[in-house]
Write a structure and sequence with these properties.
The protein is α/β, with parallel strands linked by helices. The chain contains eleven helices and seven strands. α2 (62-70) crosses α11, α7 (178-194) packs parallel to α10 (255-281) and α8 (198-207) runs antiparallel to α9 (214-224).
Length: 319
Amino acid sequence: MTQSVVETPELLPPLKKYLEASQKRFQTCLSPLDEQITIDGTQSDVTLHFVRFDPHTKEPKFSLLAKALAKHVVRFCLSARSRQRIREKDGFEEDEGELFLIAREYFRKLKDSGEVGELLLFFLLEAAIGAPQVVCKMELKTNAGDEVKGADGIHIKWDEKDQHLDVFLGEAKLYQDIGTAMTKALGSIKEFYDKNKLDEELHLVTSHFKHLDEEFRRKVTSWVNRETAPEECHIIHSCLIGWDWSQYKRFATDRDGLFDDFEEEYRKYCKNIRELLSKRFQDYTHKHLSFHFLFVPFDSVGDFRKAFYRELLGVDIEQ
């Protein structure tokens, strides 16, 4: 019997070459916390990250992270096909700066915009998880004032152990309160399924594939097309949870103490993260789904948004 083309992982090329997030900038700004969190009764993975501290000033590198994200807006917003089309226009110089000016216009100019979180989720999924973005959701907006429809991002990764394609559908929530961020993320996913949006979302992989490699697109879509794929891909809802963590208030009185004890305090806080997530899953109607939670604490998510827009636009966003 002839083996189906989607059953051999060799037909999917190494995904590493499609990753566009800078590993160097990621490792400069963010660190993982080696701690396990298990949510009973769910298919959930939890990874924890934190913004690194400058060893000289002992300040967390939030401003550096904001700058790093601003330098990724072209890779986040513009597909390879769009970049090529823009560069081929008469009189257009192949200049990253010109592409940056185009990409930044996709962002909503609002101080409470969720797009900063969407960009951070892209950064984490590519640099930390090794899952390249396959659809640029930002360039699908009809105008800059719109929100991204559906999932906040679409990324893929090959599961070497179970020999299948993982499709990460993103939800990015940055709120002052961690519980509110969790509730909003799970609420968005519930609405996604209540409105039967999955097939529509997966169709974007076929119709708006980010990369120019047509053979790669064909191989990926052979997995995600639920009407024709012999084996279905594995859908994972990847939720970025960012929140204002009270531990950062120690800076006012004990900067050295926070610098020295931060990771230990973060580990202690993991018990609270587990309890808060477990509580929200108790009566959740879609707990059978697969989830991947990424946690990043902030001193102030509001200040971080302002810092990002300052890097993106050179001015503060007040409205």
